[in-house]
Amino acid sequence: MSAPDVTALLAELERSEPDLAEDARTAVEWLTGGEPLETVTQLDVCEFLWYTLPLKVGGDHERLARSLGRLLLIGGMERYAALCVSPTTTQILRAYAREGEDAGTAAYQEALESTGVLPPDVPDLRWSMIMGPEELGAHVACSAALELAIIAGAAVDRVALTRRWLTEPRAELGSDELDQPRARRTPQPLGARPRPGQAGAGPAVRGAVARAGARAAAARAAPAAQPGRDRGEEPAAAPVALA
Question: pLDDT exceeding 70 applies to what percent of the chain?
Answer without folding.
Answer: 68
